[in-house]
Protein: DNA-3-methyladenine glycosylase I
Organism: Algoriphagus namhaensis
Amino acid sequence: MKSVQPTDSKVRCPWCLGFEDYVIYHDTEWGVPVYDDKIHFEFLILESAQAGLSWATILKKREGYRKAFADFDYKIVAGFPDSYVEELLEDKSIIRNRLKIKAAINNAERFMEVQQEFGSFSNYIWGFVGGKTKVNKLKSMSEAPATSPESDALAKDMKKRGFKFLGTTTLYAHMQATGLVNDHLVDCFRFREVQKA
């Protein structure tokens, strides 16, 4: 990942500074409320792959995941045969971890079960924050939580439903990424922008 500092004078969350891909991700995606099930599924795959790794590593491999996981089409991923798992274990464009790959396939099946029960995965997950973004009004990164009562409840429920590699910390990151919580710092230019999204 190429190291760069933004050339504009906008104030940003410090975690994104240093890498161009991080800055772009922060400025265009992170914290924007997501209601599209395909995007939720994409983040669930990427976040479960991240366990033990940095988000920078995953962002670098995002396009590899897009190709390997059928453009994040959960209906196709749910039907991946064992022979394709073996192929994926040779694919250097993704994280080659059997448990994580098998978890993604399992999670696609569980994802569709949730859709059947709730009408959409979006309906299900937004229910954990009462249907609207929780705004934390953070003044510094040290105030940012790693989990919340909502992510604890979500992780417990998803585990009960059979999802894998999606604990409370990973799911809190999902909630941050998909705008269920707004954890942009209050002085970050995106704090107000994502409120309007």
